[in-house]
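Bench notes, afternoon.
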Amino acid sequence: MNLAGIFGIISALTVFLFTITSASKSVKVFLDPHGMMIVLGGTFTVALLCFPFSRLFAALKVVVKKVLGKSEFDYVEMIDIIVNTSQVYRANPKSSIDQIPEEAHPFFKEGMQMLVEFGFGHEDLENILTNSIDGKKKRDHDDVKVWHTISRFPPAFGLLGATVGMISLLQTLGEPGAQDRVGSAMATALVATFYGLVAANLVFIPIAEKMHEVASQDIIMRNLIKEGILMIQEKRHPLLISEYLKSFLDQKDRQPTEGQGQGKQGKAA
């Protein structure tokens, strides 16, 4: 469960409710079906014109999985799994795939299966893993594009709703008592703009940015795994594999290997 995503949703709802309850004497002014229909209905309609329904449904499922699901990647743990697997592979390649823990990244399991069970050569294995990463990157880009595209529509439809409301208001200015209705009519007209800005900045843009962040982390993980599998195939020393894969990480995320840690402790003593 992604706690940051849950708290983000709660925070967004809190900001929204606080805004509408503190900005007006009556919350009813924000419950304008005219503004909601123009913004939400218009956004949904244009989204269907831009993308097929199947793609929108798939993008929605990805949001539930990536925004609300677990989205953090433990690179250090994955490096430990790769190093442990490399030690087993050097001794007995056939049994190495059985030693992979369940929590390991699915891409690592697939790669090791191609190495151990299918016996692909180095060049073929590298090409397959690289193509798989490129394909995943393209799919992630398409998913993010859906939400970035949708995020452009609500403010435009909000402005459209405000324009329609102002036109309706101006048509009644010559009627008796029109001046008494100007304030409430303008407030109603601007509600559509409010909903457009809320939908774009509290819903669609954060979703797109979160998906982009998760996708970027996953690509880093997959590149790390690809290099690890290729080094396992070459039967490189586990210490070399560990240090090489840690070069993918920020300095603060790297942990010293067992030998390095003992060396530091001895020096400090």
